[in-house]
Specification:
Keywords: Acetylation, Cholesterol metabolism, Coiled coil, Cytoplasm, HDL, Lipid metabolism, Lipid transport, Nucleus, Phosphoprotein, Repeat, RNA-binding, Steroid metabolism, Sterol metabolism, Transport. The protein has 1282 residues and is of the alpha+beta class. It contains 45 helices and 48 strands. The protein has a four-stranded antiparallel sheet with strand order 1-3-4-2.
């Protein structure tokens, strides 16, 4: 019996395998025969032959087509392939529900992926017949996948020469892919760097044989080819190649071999010939003959030719050399272009060397080079607009190459002698005309600070002047530090451009600059997207230059520059814009419980969008994964409050949210909130997450809002009032009004005045910060008595400050500049420090010494006293020079001049550094350290004894003598020193770290520069440069790092202890354990590395253990103990009926694994196709092996009963025979029927004379698809891995 499964995606779910039992009809009773038995058909009737191929019209009598054989047969686009998978090679053998198991699922998946149609049928011997139908490509892909997924895979290797592998792979791997598809196998070819020549093939036995055969065919074909390498002198290669490689091409065509000659630029003598052996041999003989002939007949001569003329002899792409070779048969050998040699060698037959030499000299002198002197500024005028002037010359004389070099006062001409002379004459005439008639230039001295204003934004101003007056204006770069502006062009245009530039400078000198304070957060808004908004302002005020600070500077100053009136108008316009921005940037934070955020947003954002549009505000909600509950509303104040009320209303409607207000004095709000909100946050967390909202600072409101669940709101209210009561007992607060300009005077210099008041009263006095809205409000906090006393003292001081007086004093004219320079910085400081006192000095140029002071009486007196102190300092001022090498100046200044600023403030002196002399020294900055690497080799600093001060080394200190000396000492203390640290060369790379991270960390941590010598020098010294204190700390840090590295090295040495032990390879799998479990545990327990031998190693018994000596020894003992236990084990065979194996093993080996764990044994079942299918091997200790065998025999006995019952039942369930009478089918009697006659035909081929009928019992004539014995079981563990 056989069953068929036709698998399609439509019928897969309901399909069942099996064929319908065929009914036997035509019987009328016992002993009757079929009605048609009387007639026996002939062989031709029963098996009519197919029509003859190539005879289209024979049977029908129709004439053959007039097209004859020109019409090619149309191939079917759909093909069918049938192949067989024997039982022993089937991957899935569960036959209980054929058509529904894993095989069916795999086939369905393959059909969906490839588009092919697959039919499965099960033969009697349980083998699998597979029919695949579809397009050729789909069928081939489906077949490959079926073989890989339904058939067990084997593997084999085939060895072919390594050089043949690339032919198996083919171009872009196409040949290999085709071979894998054709044979349904996987072919693994070793990598080029792998010495192995073995190619591994994985697949079915049939596929492996096909692939092996194809690979050997490819290799055999390549064996017929040959490669020959000839080493011939490089000088004779041109004769073998011929002019333009014609000779070698002809040779390749004649012989059929491929000839590869290295190019002239490659210094190789080897010529490679490949192809068929006979062709290669013929080509080699021909090449040798040419070589021998030329070697015998040729001679050489050497000539000297200027290096500059070599390129003319070589010609474009070497064409000239090839032309000489073609014309004379002489090879010209040129020295390399990067060589200084001028010697050229000619090689050829003696009678041909003369003509060749003549051609070489002719080519060398065919081109001449001439230089014409012309001022560099004239070059672009010589070239002309868009190259017009020079274009006329090049069109007239196309073979002349004219080259202009920037910054050089010469023009190079190159080309044929006559044409170069003509071009030279024309250019000289252009130069003469330009210099004497048409061109002029002038230089104007303009202060460098005006240069960028002359240029204008994106060069607008300077470009206008250039276009208007047809001149060229050269403004020096800032780095040149030059004031000379050069104007070149038409004489009249030059004068007019000069006049306009001078007028622009005069206007700029009379311009006014105004600084506007604008918070940096508004800068981007004022500028607008892509500068659109600020462009409108600039268009409105075109004469005003508006400069915004760089965002990285975090500055609020916007500078306006231009005519006075325009600057004032622009400032008012910008202030109005800023006022609108401030009004619209009011912000409110509304705490809303997280679970209600989605309701506030609404479906598709409908709610939040509506609120935004109706209130004209910006509303920002926290992200979903954020822990924040705060919603931020931005816009005008009234609009923000309206949006807040609407959002809170949504929350109230959704939950039982209660809101209450508590009256707490505003002065206590800050103390109740606590540092960074810690106190109020603790109350909110303690009361179940209620929200407590304090009014905004400066609003004056006492109302504090508490919002949340009803019970928690009451609890929070009680806690808040209790905390406020505690704060009020100890905190009495009074507020005092005073003009902001008085605040600095009240505080005093260095806080001296306010400190005296605090010390006398014990009260705390708080002045407003620059960000506070109430700038006049002074707060006094403390005990009531102390606060009242401090209030009284401050009120007296403020009252005195309100009495404005005017006074004057005499100040020597020579000191006036000190007070008014730097835009009156000293006067501004006096006004800030002494209550806004106004100090007026006489105009510049006046001889008056009278200085007027106006302000509060106390402030005026204090300011007068301070001015006299400053004058005293100026009169007693001295200048001290300190000689410090220029290379240290940057280190002394510190980051952004911080160190110098500190010294000038501390010692009240002025420090002036000299101009840099770039030729004197070079600075190499060190990131983030503020230090400079030294220019000397290895970082050595020149000894002071050898130091000769130069002008660029002198630093000048001005101030009082005693303070100058203190400042001088402070400067000298900042001079960096260099010290050597002994560090072994082996440790340098560890100190440097990956990509320099280690040494960079040390330099940043200690603010020093660390120099490590080059690796090739192998020095044991590291140099540390910086301030003395920093260098000392860095040395200690470096030595500490060295100690750590040495300890690591010692530890590595200890860990590298190694022991090799010999263990029989048969025990290795047991020592490794399942998935490496046993060996991994040993490695983990003893902290060691254990290496087993590779497959190809000679000594397969050696195991290497590496780690600490003690741990290695313990691991060795553990392995030795494991081996001892394994040696005590025995193996016994037990014979179990193969039909019970699957039941004993269980699903996915679960039952057998449990059994092995229980008895501590290893049980091995036979492989499919084994000679002894019933032999099971049990390995373990003798006692456990006996117990396991007894248990297995008991299981076999139980399972055999079940198997016997199943087989008996199956015998009764078999369908009746098709032709026999058994089984009672159709009411036939067994005794009356006898054996069936079978199908009989007349005139069969085997009945003819000399032919013999086939023997149906012969296995040769009728081979079976498989054996009739019970199916062999595949191991439940899967295919054996070798």
């Amino acid at each position: 019996m056989s069953s068929v499964a036709v698998l399609t995606p439509e019928s897969f779910a309901e399909h069942r395998s099996g064929l319908k039992d065929q009914e036997i009809t035509g019987f009328t009773g016992p002993g009757c025969v079929p009605e048609d038995e009387a007639y026996i058909p002939t062989y031709l009737e029963a098996f009519p032959p197919l029509p003859e191929k190539g005879a289209p019209g024979e049977k029908t009598g129709e004439p053959a087509s007039a097209w004859g054989s020109k019409i090619r047969p149309i191939k079917a686009s759909v093909i069918t392939q049938v192949f067989h998978v024997p039982l022993e090679e089937r991957r899935y053998k569960d036959n209980s529900q054929f058509g529904e198991g894993e095989e069916a699922k795999v086939c369905l998946d393959i059909m969906q992926r490839t588009g092919a149609h697959i039919e499965l049928s099960l033969a009697k011997d349980q083998g699998l017949s597979i029919m695949v139908t579809g397009k050729l490509d789909s069928v081939m892909k489906a077949r490959k996948e079926i073989v890989a997924r339904l058939q067990t895979q084997a593997s084999a290797t085939v060895a072919i020469p390594k050089e043949h592998h690339r032919f198996v792979i083919g171009k872009n791997g196409e040949k290999l892919q085709e071979l894998e598809l054709k044979t349904a196998t996987k072919i693994a070819i070793p990598r080029p760097d792998d010495p192995s020549a073995n190619i591994r093939i994985t697949g079915t036995k049939e596929g492996i044989e096909k692939a092996r055969h194809e690979i050997l065919l490819i290799s055999a074909e390549q064996d017929k080819r040959a490669v020959e390498r000839l080493s011939l002198e490089k000088a004779f290669h041109p004769f073998i190649a011929g002019a333009h490689n014609r000779l070698v091409q002809e040779l390749s065509q004649e012989t059929g071999a491929r000839i590869s000659i290295p190019p002239p630029s490659l210094p190789k003598d080897e010529i490679v010939i490949t192809g068929e052996k006979e062709a290669v041999a013929l080509a080699v003989n021909r090449i040798r003959a040419i070589y021998e002939d030329k070697k015998r007949k040729t001679t050489t001569i050497s000539v000297e030719v200027k290096k500059s003329q070599h390129k003319y002899i070589i010609g474009p792409k070497g064409n000239t050399l090839q032309e000489i070779l073609e014309a004379t048969g002489v090879s010209v050998e040129m020295p390399p272009l990067d060589s200084a040699s001028e010697t050229i060698i000619l090689r050829g037959e003696p009678d041909k060397l003369g003509p060749a030499l003549t051609q070489v000299y002719a080519k060398a002198k065919s081109v001449m080079v001439v230089e014409v002197s012309a001022p560099a500024w004239l070059h672009r005028f010589i070239i002309g607009k868009k190259g017009q002037n020079i274009g006329r010359i090049t069109q007239q004389l196309p073979r002349v190459h004219i080259e202009f070099t920037d910054g050089e006062e010469r023009i190079s001409l190159e080309g044929p002698t006559e044409e170069v002379e003509q071009a030279q004459t024309q250019i000289q005439e252009i130069i003469k005309d330009l210099v004497l008639v048409r061109m002029d230039y002038t230089e104007v001295n303009i202060d460098q600070r005006f240069h960028r204003h002359l240029i204008g934004k994106n060069g607008a101003n300077i470009n206008r002047i250039k276009e208007q007056y047809k001149v060229s204006v050269r403004i020096p770069q800032d780095s040149e530090r030059s004031n000379l502006v050069r104007i070149e062009g038409d004489p009249k245009g030059v004068q007019m451009a000069r006049r306009e530039l001078i007028e622009m400078v005069q206007r700029m000198e009379n311009e006014r600059t105004k600084d506007l304070i604008v918070e940096q957060k508004f800068h981007r808004t004022i500028i607008g997207q892509k500068g659109e908004k600020i462009k409108e302002v600039r268009d409105k005020f075109p004469e005003v230059i508006i400069t915004f600070p760089d965002p990285s500077q975090k500055s609020d100053i916007v500078q306006l520059r231009g005519p006075k009136n325009e600057v004032e108008k622009c400032a008012k316009f910008l202030q109005k814009i800023i006022a609108d921005l401030i009004e619209n940037s009011f912000s409110l934070s509304v705490p809303i419980f997280k679970q209600f955020h989605k309701n506030i947003i609404g479906k598709g954002g409908a709610n939040i969008k509506k609120i935004r549009e109706e209130t004209n505000t910006k509303i920002d909600l926290p992200t979903e994964n954020s822990n924040s509950e705060t919603i931020v509303i931005t816009g005008k104040k009234n609009n923000c409050e309206a949006a807040r009320d609407r959002i809170l209303a949504i929350q109230r409607d959704l939950a039982n949210i209660k809101e209450t207000e508590v009256a707490i004095p505003a002065k206590l709000h800050n103390s109740l909130i606590g540092s960074k909100g810690c106190l109020v946050r603790s109350i909110m967390e303690d009361c179940g997450g209620v929200h407590i909202h304090f009014p905004s600072e400066g609003s004056g409101s006492d109302k504090v809002t508490i919002r949340g669940p009803a019970g928690e709101v009451e609890k929070a209210k009680k806690q808040l009032l209790q905390l406020a009561e505690e704060k009020q007992v100890n905190n009495f607060t009074v507020e005092l009004q005073a003009k902001p300009e008085y605040h600095k005077f009240l505080i005093g210099r260095g806080g001296a005045n306010i400190r005296r008041v605090r010390d006398r009263t014990g009260a705390r006095i708080i002045f407003p910060s620059p960000d506070d809205t109430e700038q006049e409000l002074i707060t006094i906090v403390g005990k009531e008595e102390a606060v009242r006393q401090a209030q009284k003292e401050l009120e007296i001081l403020v009252k005195n400050l309100d009495d404005v007086v005017e006074d004057s004093m005499e100040v020597d004219v020579r000191h006036h500049r000190h007070f008014v320079c730097r835009r009156g910085q000293v006067l501004r400081e006096l006004a800030e420090e002494y209550g806004g006192v106004a100090v007026s000095f006489p105009r510049t140029g006046s001889s008056s010494q009278r200085v007027t002071l106006k302000g509060a009486k106390d402030c005026v007196e204090a300011a007068k006293k301070r001015i006299q102190e400053i004058i005293g300092d100026l009169e007693s001022q001295v200048s001290v020079e300190v000689a410090i090498p220029q290379r240290h100046h940057r280190a002394i200044m510190g980051p952004k001049g911080s160190r110098i600023q500190h010294i000038t403030r501390e010692h009240e002196v002025q420090i002036k550094f000299p101009e840099r002399d770039d030729s004197a020294a070079e600075w190499i900055p060190v990131a983030n350290s503020g230090q400079d690497a030294l220019p000397q080799e290895n970082g050595d600093v020149s000894p002071e004894a050898d130091f000769v001060p130069r002008k660029c080394d002198i630093i000048t200190i001005s101030g009082r003598a005693e303070k100058c000396e203190l400042a001088r000492a402070a400067l000298l203390a900042l001079v960096p020193i260099t010290e050597d640290v002994e560090v072994s060369y082996d440790l340098h790379r560890y100190i440097i770290g990956q990509k320099g991270s280690g040494i960079r960390k040390l330099m940043e941590e200690y603010e020093v520069n660390i120099w490590v010598p080059q690796p090739e020098k192998q020095l044991d010294v590291i140099k540390v440069t910086g301030l003395a204190a920093n260098v000392e700390r860095a040395k200690l840090g470096l030595l500490e790092r060295v100690k750590d590295l040495q300890a690591e090295q010692e530890d590595r040495a200890l860990r590298s202890f190694k022991v090799t032990m010999s263990v029989d390879p048969k025990f290795h799998p047991k020592i490794i354990g399942r998935k490496g479990a046993v060996i991994s545990q040993i490695r983990k327990d003893h902290d060691v590395s254990i290496q087993f031998p590779d497959k190809g190693d000679e000594q397969q018994d050696l195991i290497v253990i590496c780690g600490y000596e003690r741990n290695v020894e313990e691991a060795r003992q553990a392995i030795q103990q494991l081996v001892s236990e394994l040696q005590e084990m025995v193996s016994q065979d037990v014979h179990l009926d193969p039909r019970t194996h699957a039941r004993i093993i269980g699903a996915r080996g679960k039952a057998i694994r449990k059994l092995m764990e229980e008895f501590k044994v290893d049980i091995r079942f036979p492989q499919p196709g084994s000679d002894e299918p019933d032999k099971v091997t049990v390995t373990g200790l003798p006692d456990t092996v006996d117990a396991a065998i007894d248990h297995l025999l008991n299981l076999e006995e139980d399972y055999l009963l079940s198997v016997t019952e199943t087989e008996t039942l199956a015998a009764y369930m078999k369908p009746p025979s098709r032709y026999g009478g058994g089984g009672g089918a159709g009411g036939l009697d067994d005794s009356s029927g006898g054996p069936a006659k079978g199908f009989v035909v007349r005139d069969a081929p085997w009945n003819a004379a000399g032919n013999k009928a086939p023997d149906m019992s012969s296995a040769e004539d009728f081979p079976t698809f498989g054996t009739g014995v019970a199916p062999k079981q595949t191991s439940a563990w899967g295919p054996k891995k070798f």
